[in-house]
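ok so I'm stuck.
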Amino acid sequence: MHTVLSKDGTKIAYDRTGRGPALILVAGAFSYRKFPAQVQLAQLLSSQFTVYIYDRRGRGDSGDSQPYAVEREIEDLEAVIEAAGGSAYVWGLSSGAVLALEAAAGGAAITKLALHEPPFVVDASDRKPPQDFIPQVTELIRSGRRAEAIKYFMTKGMGAPGFVVSMMRMMPKVWTNLMAVAHTLPYDAALLDGYWDGKPLPVEQWSRVTMPTLVLEGPDSPVSLRHAACALAQGLPNAIHLSKKGLGHTKKLDAPKIAAELSAFFADKAQASGM
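replied:
not stuck anymore, here's the structure
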């Protein structure tokens, strides 16, 4: 384990493996640097890249200075980029994709960017979280009701059936890991604030995201994720859209298939695929 200090003094923990150009993996909700699928992905990519996988603020071995702000998470990613040599490729998954996108728009030294199923809602007919989603999640965590927060986030935010949460509660290790990071769910919700309303994306605010960008999604993913990926790829100045079976993230991550596409993209061999 390595650590770096973010701009506000918060310790950010990361692991580094492999050799080659720096590639930073940015996890989504419920994930952390020891999450098995993330570790597997890092190992698969390590033959071509020096892979950095870090605990986002409040998770694992990283600190959690308060008050939280999206800007602090952007600074955390920038600190890891600096530790990686001052510039890096970046892959972000789900809310991690939103974080990576916002960092790139703010001028972070990202040379290539892969955005994997950012959970925007861009079509009014697609399923949307409740309007009071963020305050509800925040209140559940504030009052110490982590299990309720997990269920609420998964069902009302991610659209998972209730029985999925019940099944997870019967898997002690899985549930323990979820409970350990549940207090960061308001952070993920904050990253999506304003992007869940079923309205067109405000692509003008990402006009500085001019580096080569790959937007990935799976054809078996919820339609809202597919609509979002397509809209984002069309709205960014230098992006391609890749839709391929095995790239969805709402079930178990297919690390080998994801690694293959990331390797191709960062090696300039990626091919776009339509909806």
